[in-house]
Each structure stands twice: as structure tokens, then as C-alpha cells.
Amino acid sequence: MLNATNLTLHYGGSQILHGIDIAAHPGQVTCVMGNNGVGKTSLLNLLAGRHPRSGGEIEFDGRKLDRLTAQAMARMGVGYVPQGRAIFPMLTVRENLETGFACLPRSERRISDEIFDSFPVLAEMADRRGGDLSGGQQQQLAIARALITRPRLLLLDEPTEGIQPNIIAQIGRVIAALRDRGDMAIILVEQFFDFAWELGDGFLVLERGRAIMQGPKSDLRREDLHARLAGHATAAE
Amino acid sequence: MKGIDLGLDALSFASIYFLAAIGLAVTFGVMRVINMAHGEFIMMGAYTGYVVQTLIPDRTLSLIVALPAAFAVTFAAGVALERLVIRHLAKRPLETLLATFGVSIALQQIAKNVFGTQARPLTAPEWLEGAITFNDVISISTIRVAIFVLALLFLGLFLFIMKRTRLGLEVRAVTQNPGMAASMGINPDRIAMLSFGLGSGIAGIAGVAIGLFAKVTSELGQDYIVQSFMTVVVGGVGNIWGTLAGAGLIGALSKIIESLNPSNTLAAQTFMILFIIIFIQFRPRGIIPQKGRAAEA
Fold first, then answer.
1. Vertex A93, ends A92 and A95: CA angle to 5°?
2. A231: closest CA of chain B, how far (Å)
3. Which of B163, B184, B293 to mutate to test the interface with A (most CBs of A within 10 A)?
């Protein structure tokens, strides 16, 4: 599905990513982990076409991609759930969902029942403004909104950040269900270790823009991964 | 009796202000672009009406042609301005203000060179010439009724486009978060261009209507730009009902001040601006502010 190699990224003069390789496969969740400020969100922004890369190759569906734009990536089938959710505050919940229709042919522009089945609260809140929702509800809306575009690759940036446990569990179930459907590749940026370990099929640990640990779940031990993350947390402090 | 007459006059003032401001409600109210050349789009619309009238002698027919022609001309001008100037100054309101102010002066000079300094006539068809008379005191000219109807029509059109069409939804999404809108597959550049064209096109149509009762000169736009911004700001930026309320308030106010002090227009304008400054002190978000978590954040 997605195969990216040797990605580099600069913000002005400072280099944020150093030669990252990342792949995503249908029916699998690839987790990107690491502490704050190591480049996880930058990596996701790059893949979503929201920031130009300085170097590296990106192949999506067997096609090599040159310059990415956010709009082109969305239309190609990359759904994006940003950190902080970025709900359109003055649009209703329904209108927020409908923004994704831009990616669909006119005849298929409807909100499927599946969306409301996965997130019943959104059906109740359909006519409320996005900005009036609570954080947990907004997170569900952000995921649902990305799903409206029928993505083949879903990018999730810390969907558990600041969310209460029962909603986290629900989001986890939705992600697992999407993975088990088998036709969608998922890249999940996450700091919540247990959540990521539970869902992940492959892991990539970043530190200061470099990959310090990478591989499928079968090659990694939970303790090693945990130690790697925790160890660097203490080192950073 | 006098009161009713005053009320009718205020209403027709209000509809003119509303008509002049509604294009600005799109470009400034929704998109938050400060376009000082907005008045010149009104002027371009009026001149388009004049040119059409020189080509088509029948006044009714020429008016019917002039309205879409004015829309087309100013839509194109708006798109050009957006692509050539405003897009490159995104998120820099001060530079946008200065640049469009320059464009405004340039457009006035071009109009002077092309049409001369003399006022050009844009004559209303006969059926718009008369007045509806109720008695000796209360009468209203037909053209003012027409402008009132046109203002209502545009209010409806604006609401329909913004709330019911795909374009309106995409415009609102792009103005709230252009980056996220792009990630939903919307093309923010295209939307900015189209909605700026739409706001400018509406200004052009307002220009035809204004030209029917005012003299068409290169300075026509100047008379409306300040009032238009005041209307949008006093009403509450980003809310069309606010623009309507703002137009009503300013229309009524200018009529009341005028009736108290009929000889001195400069004093009238000064009082108006004073009132607005004081009003904004007490209601900085306008008559109808946007509400809710999102607006207060």
C-alpha cells in the first residue's frame, strides 16, 4: 500500500527527520512511537501531504509520488486524523462529515450507517456545532470524518490524547474493526503504550528524528519496546 | 405621518447599505479579506450598466442584460484580484489592506481615463421612475422599492448558497481551517478564488442598482466602502443577519441624523461615526455576535 524510504524533513534550517523508512499494509496497524518532539507528527504531516519532504521516496499503490499536496493525498485515499482533532468548529457534526464528500463521486455522497453505528454519539449530535462537542466526541468525529472519504490508508495522530478511558476503549475497538476488515492500512502515532501494543502489527520508534527501533510485532518483545520508550523518557528528563 | 415617511426612507437607506455590504459580507465577513477595492467593484458594476445602456437602447432590456453582465465583469475582476494580489498576501491583513487600497486608486484612475470625470447617466426604465404615493406625506419612489426587493433577494441567495450548497459548505470549511479542508480533499485555492469572485460579483450587481439613482462617476465606490465596512462590523462579522441588522441600524441612524440636521452632511457623518465608535466599545462583536464554545475560544 504505502512504502516510503529514506524520508527527510526540514523546518527551515533544522532537520526534523533523518532517513526514516516506513511501510503500511492493508489489514495492518503500523505504530509510530516516541516521546514528544521526536518527529512523529512531522512524519505524519509529511505523509498527509501537509509539509513537503526534503528527500526520500514515497510509493503509494505502486505509484511513485513526487510532490504531495494535502488535497491530492486525500483524493488518492489517505484519510487524516490530526493531533488536536481540527474539527471545523462552526460546522455542524453532519457538515463536518460532509466535508469529506469532496473525495467521493457525486452519486456516492451519503453518510453510511456504518459511521453512526461505530460512533452512535455522532448521530445524536448530528445537528450540533462541532466546536460545541467535548474532546472525546470531537475525536470520534475526527475519525468518522476521515472514514467518510473511504480511505485506503488511515493516518491517526494520537487519538487517545486527553480522552477518557471508556472512549479510548471504543476508539480502540473501531480501529481494530477497521484493521480486521483487511482492506485498509493504518498508521497510528501513539504515546499510550498499552493501546499501541494491543493494536499494532508493526512498530517504529523515533528518537530525535531517527528510527531507533523498527520491526513487526513478532520480532519485538514488549519489554524491550517498553524499556526503549521509558528509558528515553528518563534520559530526556 | 412624518414618522412613517421617515421610516420608509430609513428602510430604503438600509436596503442600499445592505446591498452595498452583502458582497463584503462574503469577502470580509466570511473570508476575512480586507478588500479596500470593494467600492470600485460597485463602481465597475455601475459603469457596466452604463455601457450596456449605450449598446441597448431599450431600458428594460438593457437592465436585464446589465445585471448578469455586471456580475460577470466584477466576478472576473474579483478572481483576478484574488489570484494576482490577495493570494500572495494570505494572513497578512495590513499588507492586503494597503495593496487593495492601491488597486482601488488605480481602478478609479482607469475609470477616469476611460469614461472621463463627468458623471455618466444610468437611467432607470420608466416603470421604475415613478413613486408609490399613499398620501401627501407618505410616498416612496418605485426604485427604492425595487432596491429593497433586490436586497431581500440577495439575502435569500446568500443564505441559500452558504447553507445549502456544496460551495457554501466548502467555503465555510476553508475559512475555518484551510489546512484541514485540504486534507478532506477540498481545494482551498479554488474555493478562495470562487468565493472572492462571488462577493465581488454581488458588488457589481449592487453597482447597477446604485447607479440607477446615484450619479455614475469614478468616485462612486468611495461613497460606499466605509459604510459597507461599518455595516459588516457593526452587525457582527461573519453573520449575514448581523449585516442585515447593521444595515438597518446605519440606515435608520443616518436618516434620523439627517432629519435633525438637514443642512450639514459632514456633521451628520461625524455623528454617525462617533455613535459607531461608542457602540463598538460596548458590543465589540457587533449586534449579532457569533456564539458558542468555538466563537469564544
1. 65
2. 35
3. B184
